Amino acid sequence: MSEPPTASPQTLSSVTVLGTGALGGFYGSRLLLGGCQVRFIARSDCAILRRDGLRVDSPLGDRHHAPIEVYAASDPVPASDCVLIGLKTTENHRLPELLRPLVHPGTIILNLQNGLTAEEELVAAFPEARVIGGVCFLCANKIGPGRIAHLDYGSIGLAPVHERDRHLLAPLMERLAAGGITTEELPSLADARWRKLAWNIPFNGLSVVLNANTDVIMADPDARRLATQLMTEVAQAAAACGHPFAPGFIAERLALTERMTPYAPSMRLDYLAHRPLEIEYLYRRPLREAQSRGLRLTAIEMLADQLTFLERHHQRNPEPGR
Amino acid sequence: MSEPPTASPQTLSSVTVLGTGALGGFYGSRLLLGGCQVRFIARSDCAILRRDGLRVDSPLGDRHHAPIEVYAASDPVPASDCVLIGLKTTENHRLPELLRPLVHPGTIILNLQNGLTAEEELVAAFPEARVIGGVCFLCANKIGPGRIAHLDYGSIGLAPVHERDRHLLAPLMERLAAGGITTEELPSLADARWRKLAWNIPFNGLSVVLNANTDVIMADPDARRLATQLMTEVAQAAAACGHPFAPGFIAERLALTERMTPYAPSMRLDYLAHRPLEIEYLYRRPLREAQSRGLRLTAIEMLADQLTFLERHHQRNPEPGR
């Protein structure tokens, strides 16, 4: 390598992917292609991944990785330079226990989850680790055990929680780039998380409550007004927390959503599949951040309460349709 | 009659019931029992009512009125002292046309609908009439053509739109009382309408959006918080419009709802039966009244927008479940 050690003081050679779902499977595949040693931790698909490997169908090219290194959460896993969190935030109560054997002094924890405050919890639980947040724009679904369909996008914006760890971005971005992933170094993780919430808060929640995809929401004047109102409250919260959106940001995001291919947000897929919803990190934590600045967000709070009710009663009542 | 003419300057001998559904059928039956001549106007059930009469099963006693005077809307109907509006507010765009042949100088129009501002429209359209508003507490369903099931309650609070018409209440209350209906003379119609909205706005809308009856809503901490938030906004609007609720009113209404038999609000029944929803008079008009006083009600607005979306898309998509 010709890079000076100041720009890339260490190389990244191994990554443990905690949670081999759509996100973990996709980026794990890309890191394999980028030359990393990748260790996949899987729960339900462990045996099939061991036997058949990992398949990722993608516009970037269909890939079949076999054999791959697969571990159950309870297995002893060799130390890796980086642990990539591929679990949904609904699993975050299990993270300390799951990460404990994987994190060593200096281990990079790469958190690709949506929502707010998960990184702060990681820093508090693992002060010996280096926590980096990634904001992904990825359309991918798990279509079967060990089978991922990558539909579109895939870029990641990256920033460290602590500025002292910013030098760790370069080797990570290098590996991702080698695997065909566009990356961007973010000046502020919180800025990017709030901007992503501007989309996630309205469209994830409304897609569940209104039982509709993004195109139907955008085509209906009342649902569109709801999305705009919710996005406006996210903007108020972001500004109150010191991360104001640029002028025109909301209009641009709405226009972008209107041009998008009809899309079922992940929370809608979770709801329809009777999986837990990411209400805590996508709604309650941003509400809490705003509240601590004296700001009450009535529309977001209402949507969060509706989602909590629907999740609770939907799960009790497994018949389709509600 | 021993009453002095000042207390009851005229008697009420005939009533035309416009719309023979659960409400019109029930009160029509009670007015027949109270000694009125009652003319029923019916749309879909006209032929069956003519042939079989009207059946009302009730804790007050089951009744079968046959034959009864039944008219189609297009028939010439003899002039009555009073026209009772038994249509839902979703039909109010048709009211001027339907009422035109029924209203003569001095005719009492008794409006028993929920929501705001319908009486003002009646006064504007029929300045020659005397408009009285009634706030009903009635649990009744139409269970078939010409068949009403009265479940519980039935009392009416009454007030004229114009104070000059207050003397018209006595003969009306007399007839209703003779038919077994408890009545109350209200000092202010608007006061009573706002107090009823305090229940209707949260529980009608939430029962549709959350697909749940009142008992499920009250038993769930998040849904209960939603109901409380919505009721609080109704209280703010009522106060801004000059009709403040008494202290403790909200807590008392919630406690009352908790003690109620599990109940499907009428909007939920309408939604499940793919009928139009009373969004305009129950939500949009109160929102407009508040807005004209500079008050924006975020939670009620959001619920109204959700209901409008759901009604629009539910009607387009007649499969059960959404």
From TrEMBL, chains A, B:
Domain Ketopantoate reductase N-terminal: 15-160
Coiled coil: none
Annotated GO CC locations: cytoplasm
GO biological process, one term: pantothenate biosynthetic process
Keywords: NADP, Oxidoreductase, Pantothenate biosynthesis
Catalytic reaction equation(s): (R)-pantoate + NADP(+) = 2-dehydropantoate + NADPH + H(+)
Top EC class of this enzyme: oxidoreductase
Entry's EC annotation: 1.1.1.169
Single GO MF annotation: 2-dehydropantoate 2-reductase activity
Keyword NADP among UniProt keywords: yes
Superkingdom of the organism of origin: Bacteria
SUPFAM superfamilies linked to this entry: 6-phosphogluconate dehydrogenase C-terminal domain-like, NAD(P)-binding Rossmann-fold domains
Keyword Transferase: no
Domain Ketopantoate reductase C-terminal: 191-309
Pfam families hit by this protein: ApbA (PF02558), ApbA_C (PF08546)
InterPro entries named in the record: 6-PGluconate_DH-like_C_sf, 6PGD_dom2, ApbA, KPA_reductase, KPR-Related, KPR_N, NAD(P)-bd_dom_sf
Pathway: Cofactor biosynthesis; (R)-pantothenate biosynthesis; (R)-pantoate from 3-methyl-2-oxobutanoate: step 2/2
Family statement drawn from the similarity comment of this UniProt entry: Belongs to the ketopantoate reductase family.
Summary of the function given for this chain in its UniProt record: Catalyzes the NADPH-dependent reduction of ketopantoate into pantoic acid.
Name of the protein described by the UniProt record: 2-dehydropantoate 2-reductase
Species this chain originates from: Thiocapsa imhoffii
